[in-house]
Amino acid sequence: MRPVSIAPSLLSADFSRLAEELARMESAGADWVHLDVMDGHFVPNLTFGAPVIGALRKHSRLPFDAHLMIEAPERVIEDYARAGCDHLTVHVETGYHHRRTLAAIRDAKMRAGVALNPATPPEVLDYLLPCVDIVLVMTVDPGFGGQRFIPEMLGKIRRIRQQIADREIDLAVDGGVTTQTARAILEAGANVLVAGSAVFGSADIKTAVADLRATAA
Ligand code: DX5
Ligand code: ZN
C-alpha cells in the first residue's frame, strides 16, 4: 500500500488556543495541517481566513493545507499564498473557470487542490487532472465536523484513483474519517486522511494519529 499522510483538521481544535493546538498536532506526528476556511455562503458555517492562517504560520513547520469552502475563491489566491499556505484547495461547485483558478494557485507557488462534494460526479476531473496536485473527496456535505461518513463514496474514491492513474496527485478524503472508516478508504485508493473529530475528540491525539496511520498496515 502507498505511504499515508495524516492531516488533522484544525476545525475540531480549541479555537481559543490555536497556536498550542498546532504545536500539539506537530508533536502528535501529523503530516499536514488541514485548515477549513468557511464563508457562511458556500457552506452555512464561518471559520477563519487568511489573516488568522498568516498569524499561525510561525507556530508550525508542517505544510499548511487550506481547504477553501468559499464562493469566488479565485479572488483570494494571493492572500492565502502570502499567509503561508502550501496547498490551496478549491471546490468545483463554485466558480466558473477552474483551470484558470488552479493555474493561478500554481503560479502563486502553492500545490493546487480540487474538492468534490459527495453528489458531484468524478467525471469533472477528466478535464482538470493536468492542472491538479491534490484531489479532495468530500465524504460528507461540507460545513461541519463530526458528521457520518457516506459509504457510497468508497466507489467514487476507487474510480478517482483509476482516473489519477500514475500521475503525481495526492488523493485525500475528508469527512467522517475514523479508525472504523479509514481502512476501507485507504483500500479504495486514498493516500491522505483528513480527520477532525477523530483526532481532536480523542483524549490523546498522538495515539489518535498513530491509530489512523496504523489502519494502513
Ligand atoms: C468539513 C471539513 C472537514 C472537517 C472534518 O466540512 O471540510 O475537514 O474538519 O471533520 P470530521 O473529521 O470530524 O468529519
Ligand atoms: Zn476540510
Strand and helix layout:
Blueprint: E1 5-8, H1 18-27, E2 33-38, H2 50-56, E3 64-69, H3 77-82, E4 87-91, H4 98-107, E5 111-116, E6 134-138, H5 153-164, E7 170-174, H6 182-187, E8 192-195, H7 197-200, H8 205-214
Parallel strand pairs: 1-8, 2-3, 3-4, 4-5, 5-6, 6-7, 7-8
Residues 9, 11-12, 34, 36, 67, 140, 142-143, 145-147, 174-177, 194-198 line the site of D-xylitol-5-phosphate.
What's the short story on this structure?
With 217 residues, this protein is an alpha/beta fold.
What are the salient characteristics of this protein?
single chain, 217 residues, alpha/beta, TIM Barrel, 8-stranded parallel sheet, 8 helices, binds D-xylitol-5-phosphate, binds zinc ion
